[in-house]
UniProtKB/TrEMBL annotation:
<dbReference type="InterPro" id="IPR011989">
    <property type="entry name" value="ARM-like"/>
</dbReference>
<keyword id="KW-0539">Nucleus</keyword>
<comment type="similarity">
    <text>Belongs to the importin beta family.</text>
</comment>
<protein>
    <recommendedName>
        <fullName>Importin N-terminal domain-containing protein</fullName>
    </recommendedName>
</protein>
<dbReference type="GO" id="GO:0005737">
    <property type="term" value="C:cytoplasm"/>
</dbReference>
<dbReference type="InterPro" id="IPR057942">
    <property type="entry name" value="TPR_TNPO3_IPO13_3rd"/>
</dbReference>
<dbReference type="Pfam" id="PF24140">
    <property type="entry name" value="TPR_TNPO3_IPO13_3rd"/>
</dbReference>
<dbReference type="GO" id="GO:0006606">
    <property type="term" value="P:protein import into nucleus"/>
</dbReference>
<keyword id="KW-0653">Protein transport</keyword>
<dbReference type="InterPro" id="IPR016024">
    <property type="entry name" value="ARM-type_fold"/>
</dbReference>
<dbReference type="InterPro" id="IPR051345">
    <property type="entry name" value="Importin_beta-like_NTR"/>
</dbReference>
<dbReference type="GO" id="GO:0005634">
    <property type="term" value="C:nucleus"/>
</dbReference>
<keyword id="KW-0813">Transport</keyword>
């Protein structure tokens, strides 16, 4: 069929096909071209396709000839296995004939390669085995025509007699065919009986393939000879890739390929095809290391030592891109021989040279990502090196003597860490400004990869590595070498997590923090690069735990951070570090609150003040407020923070009056986000120590301060801010999200606090919302979190509030009517009912507290279960599984009776919905969720079997796709499911098998 839906005829003559192919390769109307393509595809599947394809190979147009060869391949893929023996042999002979003829005619590479691909397909798909494809084509080349297979010599060296008589183009075609055979055969399943015979032929064929490769590799060093030798390398690699998974036990077959190494390795030193040779040997070193025997590794070591090493060193100095394949070969060799490289450091032809060369890559001039791409590749070797060293070090037992190579390795790692630091130095501005985005990203990526490597080296060297970097940093600071200082600080920052876990590193870090570093870098009169200051800011953020234990360093560091906060290019990093440092060191900074508030107010008037920095800094100050004692002392600084938020609201109100709604929304959202940050900052840190020996309980007035009039006033002010912004920006989903986050800020707290609101306040916010409230899903998600919190046994019951939640959520599903009206809200509503079904099942089912509203909920959940929307369906499946199972530990007779009434009333409809889904309406990925209510039904004392059978034989059941599923299959399914009585895994298997049968698909589980 054509793309536009109309029928098109298949071409029936050579002339017609030629015209169609020419139209296909010519520019024109897309629809016309699509129709042409459809007609040609019809030809490739038509019975006449064989004859037309054969005729097309004699065309004068190269595209037509290519299409003829392609048609042969398509037909063989589709129909090759169904051909009778005589026709199959005829097709094979015609392909050989055309391959010979097109070569004699001087055909280009395009058509001859496609003919080779068709011959390889014939080898795989033909109903008659083609036992000697390489010999058959070689003899046919020699004779100038397709030679019948029965005339081929049975001698094991028959191909040796033909190879010297073949031209370069004929040898190239043999190599293409040989490589195609290996590539395509590798894709077949070797375990089937039919394919086992095919792979046996490959074992026989490798001898001929290796002879062709060897013969082609010895062609004279001419332009044509270089191309032929490159083709021999490609063919060799295809066979090695085939052999890797296939010939673990066939060493004799594998040795045919291994014996080629000495013939092909010299190409690594020749101008042509040196690049191809390096790629091939690198590929095998990386993917099939055991292919090479020890003598081969020694041969490669000699080539690297005598040829590749001096060439790479020279190319590194010249910054030539040609260094990459040479370096990659050496890297691959080093990784393949990593044990020898590490454990035999004095091996002249292996280890010593490899380590020297790969350190030299980092010593060479240039910047990674710009004129030094090799360093990026070099990271892989050193990761392997360090991984091997660390594993060897930490896997040995304590009574084992240290390895002899230990001191050498330590020296290597110390040198390596210094070289990496040097490679991390950023370029001067005149170079960096000329970088493209891709070059800048590559440099950043190198830094990330180098960071991972440095962490591994630190495992080996420990504090010696840290001391080396500290010395470098102090030396750079004294010399005012700011770029080198930045790279060293970056290294120190990278190690922070490991360093902070090591108590012995404390004294080393004093050298940095007691130096003039942060005083000098805070002097904005000095011409220090922004990047250096930014990395110094990061140092303060990453080493906050250290500064917390050394409060004497806080004044210099915070003075620098707040100065940076008012500086373009630094304020984002400074705000982040201020938040991290204040959060970590909150207990040491309570005396500085007034000063911080004053600095913040000054910063808020500056040009660098924007939402991100405001939120970070206000959260940082809130973290210090959390550490203030007693609780009543928090009111004053907290009120000052709320004044700042009020200022943003006032600004938003002014902008609304001017009609600047976009700017007003930005200020309003920022006000709410600042409030969220205050709430998070006031949360008690997770790592606060618990005094197990403290017998004295908290003082009553401290414990209940936030329930006093003064504490309640603060809470009401917070809620008032939320209400004001909601009224200002009623259509802003970001504001709704922010208010939800404010209310949730106290959910995790175990003691009263300014953001620990009574649950009725959260419920009141829900009751303000309607079905049209933006981001209503966020509100319902918050309610779910509230229900989970108050479902814990250590929390008081809040039945009255839950009843209000229930009633208001019902209004949402009534407004929706159908779950598909808004699947997101539908799912969120059902989730609310799910969270109620544990501790508050009495509210869910008790008509006295909720009114008679359970029916619309059950009807809605049933529609969601049998609907098309994935997420509401999953929530509904969870809901019904909870409803059907007997209430856990239920003692309220009213609840138990009501639950029984629900099951009796909705059991048939629930069974029908589940059967509708299982017989084909559901997606396969939904079956596990649908099994849950089904398992619950089978464990309940209800007539489940009758309900399920009625559903399967109901007229309302959607038509089952597979008509062969009969009444007996349906009854057997019901019998199996009911008999398993909720056994989880087996029930899922039965359901999936029945689903597959109904869909008429074959799926392996």
């Amino acid at each position: 069929m054509a793309s536009n839906g109309s029928a098109v005829p298949a071409p029936t003559s050579v002339q017609e096909v030629e015209q169609l192919v020419k139209r296909l390769y010519a520019p024109g109307n897309p629809r016309t071209i699509a129709q042409v393509d459809d007609q040609l595809k019809l030809l490739q599947h038509s019975p006449e396709g064989w004859q037309l394809a054969d005729a097309l190979l004699g065309s004068s147009d190269v595209n037509v000839r290519f299409f003829g060869a392609l048609t042969f391949q398509v037909k063989l893929n589709n129909d090759g296995a169904r051909l009778d023996a005589e026709t199959a042999k005829t097709v094979g002979m015609r392909l050989v004939y055309w391959t010979v003829q097109r070569d004699r005619a001087g055909e280009g590479m395009l058509v001859r390669k496609k003919l080779c691909a068709s011959l390889a397909t014939y080898f795989l798909r033909s109903s008659v085995r083609w036992t000697k494809p390489l010999l058959h084509l070689a003899v046919s080349f020699q004779q100038g025509d397709a030679v019948p297979e029965e005339r081929l010599s049975a001698s094991h060296d028959a191909i040796d007699q033909t190879l010297p008589t073949l031209t370069d183009s004929q040898l190239a075609t043999l190599l293409w065919l040989s490589g195609s055979l290996a590539t395509e055969a590798a894709k077949t399943d070797s375990t089937t009986p039919e394919n086992m015979q095919l792979h046996t032929l490959m074992e026989d064929m490798v001898a001929s393939a290796s002879k062709i490769i060897r013969h082609a590799s010895k062609r004279p060093d001419t332009a044509q000879g270089g191309k032929l030798r490159a083709e021999s390398l490609a063919c060799f690699l295809n066979w090695v890739n085939y052999a890797q998974p296939m010939w673990h036990a066939q060493q004799e077959s594998l040795n045919h390929l291994r014996n080629l190494v000495e013939d092909l390795a010299p190409m690594l030193t020749e101008d042509s095809p040196q690049s191809e040779a390096m790629d091939v040997f690198r590929d095998i070193l990386e993917s099939f290391t055991t292919f090479f025997k020890p003598q081969h590794m020694q041969l490669l070591a000699n080539i690297i030592n005598q040829f590749a090493a001096p060439k790479m060193l020279q190319l590194l100095q010249d910054k030539e891109p040609e260094v990459i394949p040479v370096a990659q070969l050496i890297i691959a060799y080093g990784i393949a021989n990593i044990q020898q490289v590490v454990e035999e450091p004095e091996n002249e032809y292996g280890s010593r040279n490899i380590v020297r060369l790969l350190l030299a890559i980092f010593e060479a001039p240039g910047y990674p990502g710009d004129d030094d791409e090799v360093s990026i590749h070099n990271i892989e070797f050193w990761n392997t090196y360090i991984e091997y060293v660390n594993e060897a070090m930490y896997s040995r037992t304590t009574d084992q003597p240290p390895p002899t190579w230990l001191e050498h390795d330590k020296a290597v790692c110390m040198q390596l860490s210094k070289l990496i630091q040097n490679k991390l130095v950023t370029p001067p501005p005149d170079i960096a400004q000329g970088w493209t985005d891709a070059e800048a990203d590559a440099f950043k990526e190198f830094r990330v990869d180098a960071s991972d490597l440095m962490l591994s080296i630190y495992v080996r060297l420990g504090n010696e590595m840290l001391q080396q970097f500290i010395t470098l940093a102090l030396t750079s600071l004294a010399a005012k070498d700011w770029q080198n200082l930045e790279a060293t600080l970056f290294c120190i920052n990278t190690l922070s997590d490991n360093v902070l876990e090591d108590a012995t590193a404390e004294q080393l870090l004093i050298q940095i923090f007691s130096s003039s570093l942060f005083r000098d870098i805070a002097d904005f009169n000095q011409p220090i690069p922004t990047q250096t200051r930014r990395t110094a800011i990061d140092t303060l953020g990453t080493y906050g735990q250290y500064i917390e234990r050394h409060a004497e360093f806080l004044p210099d560091t915070l003075r620098f951070l707040f100065a940076s906060l008012e500086t373009f290019g630094l304020f984002m990093s400074a705000a982040k570090s201020i938040e991290a440092l204040c959060s970590t060191c909150r207990n040491s900074l309570t005396g500085e609150l007034d000063g911080f508030l004053a600095q913040y107010n000054r910063f808020a008037q500056g040009e660098t003040s924007e939402p991100y920095t405001n939120e970070k800094v206000i959260g940082a100050i809130a973290a210090i407020v959390q550490a203030v004692t007693p609780e009543s002392a928090k009111v004053s600084p907290l009120s000052a923070l709320l004044d700042i938020v009020d200022g943003n609201i006032t600004r938003a109100q002014q902008l609304i009056k001017r009609g600047q709604m976009e700017d007003a929304e930005a200020y309003g959202v920022s006000a709410i986000e600042c409030l969220v940050r205050i709430g998070k900052g006031l949360q008690v840190p997770d790592d606060v120590p618990i005094d197990l020996y403290e017998d004295e309980p908290p003082k009553k007035n401290e414990q209940s301060f936030w329930r006093t009039q003064e504490g309640q006033a603060v809470q009401h002010r917070i809620l008032g801010i939320c209400q004001t912004v909601l009224l200002l920006l009623p259509d802003s989903g970001e504001v709704v999200d922010g208010v939800c986050n404010v209310l949730k800020a106290g959910f995790t707290e175990t003691e009263p606090g300014p953001f620990v609101f009574p649950p009725e306040m959260t419920v009141s916010f829900l009751e303000q919302c309607t079905i049209s409230t933006p981001h209503l899903e966020s509100v319902l998600s918050m309610i779910c979190t509230l229900l989970v919190q108050y479902s814990r046994r250590d929390q008081p019951r809040i039945d009255a509030e839950v009843a209000r939640i229930y009633k208001h959520t019902v209004t949402y599903i009534q407004a929706l009517g159908e779950p598909s009206q808004d699947p997101g809200i539908a799912q969120s509503c059902i989730d609310v009912f799910n969270r109620m079904s544990t501790r508050y099942i009495n509210v869910l089912l008790d008509t006295t507290s909720t009114g008679d509203s359970v029916q619309p909920i059950l009807d809605f959940a049933l529609k969601a279960l049998d609907g098309p929307d994935l997420m509401p369906k999953r929530s509904a499946a969870d809901f019904w599984a909870r409803m059907v199972r007997p209430p856990e530990n239920a003692t309220d007779e009213t609840v138990i009776t009501r639950a029984g009434h629900v099951i009796s009333a909705y059991g048939p409809a629930l069974s029908q919905a589940l059967i509708n889904q299982i017989t084909g309406r559901a997606q396969r990925s939904e079956l596990d969720q649908l099994c849950e209510p089904l398992k619950a039904l089978t464990t309940n004392r209800a007539p489940t079997k009758a309900w399920l059978e009625a559903a399967l034989f109901s007229e309302s059941l959607p038509p089952i796709a597979n008509g062969s599923v009969g009444d007996a299959d349906k009854r057997r399914f019901v019998q199996q499911v009911v008999g398993l009585r909720g056994e989880s895994r087996r029930t899922r298997d039965v359901v999936k098998n029945f689903y597959v049968a109904c869909r008429g698909t074959v799926v392996s589980y």
